[in-house]
Amino acid sequence: MRKPFVAGNWKMNTDSHSSVDMAKRIALGSLEIASHSVTVAVCPPFVYLQTVAKALSASSIAVCAQDVYYESKGAFTGEVSAAMLKDIGCTYVLCGHSERRHVIGETDELINKKVAAAISGGLLPILCVGELLSERKALQTSAVVSRQIKNGLAGLSAEKVSAVTIAYEPVWAIGTGLTATPQQAQEAHDLIRKLLAGMYNGKLAEEIRILYGGSARPDNAEELMAQDDVDGLLVGGASLKAEDFLAIIRAAA
Ligand code: PEP
Fold first, then answer.
1. Which end of the chain has a smaller Cβ tally under 10 Å, C or N?
2. Strand, coil or helix: what is 170?
């Protein structure tokens, strides 16, 4: 049985006050939801990670960074290492979010180095994959997602990959209000699980959690979570309202 996992990606939103306030409201609101029934994480901007981690220290809610650099230290101005993130209380880190792939220009190779560095540094990476609308229309979803998974996990042993969570996030559904249908999500998740079984083994593929992301909201969370291979949700916009995020956590639990 895979434990459901809901993560809220705050992207470049909130400020020093609202980030802590939201974290506290989520922690309070999720008290009634048994922590053994759902894993919950929030992904604040870098500069608020530490204060949010402190605000959540007595709760079961984990802190997830939105990015990491692959080197461990040195002359890499503006970058942040896995050890630094671990040091201030992060458990998870997003790697290869679509905005980093398509706005910042990250490649599969760079993302692979980040996933590897995160694991070596004691973080649990959430590897994000997903196709553009043009790729879906050209029937390339399977090829694109398979390439992103194979390249993103290249060179990693099954033992290391067991630390990874996958997030399937079709780019056309992120921040657009367009959600993949539950069937489209299930189809992609099934493809990813089968791919992982072939790359590693059936046990790993059965145990790894695959989240769906792309305009997940309180009103569609339940039907997405009802799919066999949808193990959780990576939530952007709806995670910025504590009540909506809590409703999604309840739907997933
Ligand atoms: C995301 O940022 O990963 C995301 C899925 O955003 P949204 O829920 O706003 O589509």
1. N
2. coil
How far is residue 31's CA from residue 45's CA, in Å, rounded to a whole number? 24
- Whole-number Å distance, alpha carbon 166 to ligand 1 midpoint, is 14
Q: How far is CA 23 from CA 29, 59, 91, 210, in A?
A: 10, 10, 15, 24
212 Cα to the center of ligand 1, angstroms: 9
Of ligand 1's atoms, which has the minimum distance to the CA of residue 94?
3
Q: How many CA atoms lie within 13 A of 40 on its CB side?
A: 28
Question: How many Å apart are CA 19 and CA 150, to the nearest integer?
Answer: 35
pLDDT in tens, 106-136: 999 999 999 999 999 999 999 999 999 999 9
Distances (CA, A) of 249 to 38, 130, 136, 198, 236: 8, 23, 29, 32, 13
Burial class (CB in 10 A: 0-12, 13-18, 19+), 190: middle
Q: Which two tokens stand for residue 69?
A: 């650099």
Tokens linked to 215: 């305009």
Q: Which tokens hold the place of 82?
A: 């896995």
Cβ neighbours, 10 Å, residue 12: 8
Residues 16 and 85: their CA atoms lie apart, in Å, by: 18
With a 6 A CB cut-off, is 56 part of the ligand 1 pocket? no
Strand partners, 16: none
